[in-house]
Structure formats: structure tokens, C-alpha cells
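User: quick one, fold this
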Amino acid sequence: MTGIASKSQLRMSFLRYALFTVPAVLLLGTLSGTLSGSGNSNPWFAVLHKPPLMPPGWVFGAVWTSLYVLLGLSLAMVLHARGAKNRKRAAGLFGVQLVLNFAWSPVFFGFHKVQAALSIIAAMIVVCVVTILVIWRIRVAAGLLLYPYLAWLMFASLLNYQILTLNPHADTLAPASASTDIPL
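Assistant:
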């Protein structure tokens, strides 16, 4: 038995990674959005003034699902590249940008901090560019899979900025918490 794997063995190895990374990224992204009450059904978000560029609500679900699949595939390619220089660095950067991604929805929709959410997107864009540069040297295709994500982050940052501009006091729009005390 030699130490060299056949093409079919390499494909199966990649598929094993992808069968873990794609559902994991998709599940974590969906949980982040769902648990933070993201979307048009959020009462706070519903009262915000929206920019003219704001797409219909269903677009966000479709785009994020597609992007999370691409992110999972890109991560699988990086993890599959055993022995590649900077593989650990690429995986670490990937993890950082995913944490930032999953933090955005709770900050924006949950805590109503539009300015902080914009800062998170700015950080995501920077980390995404660095991640692409590192991943590009490992697997060009894995880097290319991140371009749609980077483009969407730029568009999302524009929407976030316009929402901030149109709603300078958005954090005060949150309904006051109800009390069960009987006034005297």
C-alpha cells in the first residue's frame, strides 16, 4: 500500500469535510438569525425607515442560504488541503469572520445597535479580504467562493449605513419592557 491517495479517495475526503462544514455553517447562521429575531417580522425593524435599495425580505433568506453553502464549501476545501502552508491561519481567519458574521444579527436585530452592527460589518469585510488572500494561496477555488460573500457584505454595509442615516436614534425605538405592577 502506498501513501498516495487516488483521485476518488481525495474526492471522498473532500466530501466528508463538506458534509460537515456546509450544514454546520448553514445551521449556525440560521440559528443566529432566528434566535435574534432577524427579518421583517421583528417589530423594531418594521418601524425603521428603510433605504430605497432595500430588497424584499425573502431575498435575504435566499442569499444567506446560498452564501452559507459557499462558505461551507470554501472551508471544506481549506480543511481538505492537508499539509498546505498557512492552512491553520486560513481556518483561524475563517473562524473569526464567521464569529463576526454570526454576531451581526443579535447586535442589529436583538440589541438594536445599528452603529455597532455597521462596525461589525466593516470588520467582516476586512477579515474577509485577508481570508481570501490567505486562502487564495491554498486553493484558488476556495478563495473564489468567497467573492459573492464579500460582494454581499459590501452591499449589506451600504444598507446598514443607510438605515443608520435614516434612523439616527434607532436604538430608542425599542418598545419599553412591560411591567406587571399595578400603578397606585
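User: anything notable?
Assistant: The chain is about 70% helix and 0% strand.
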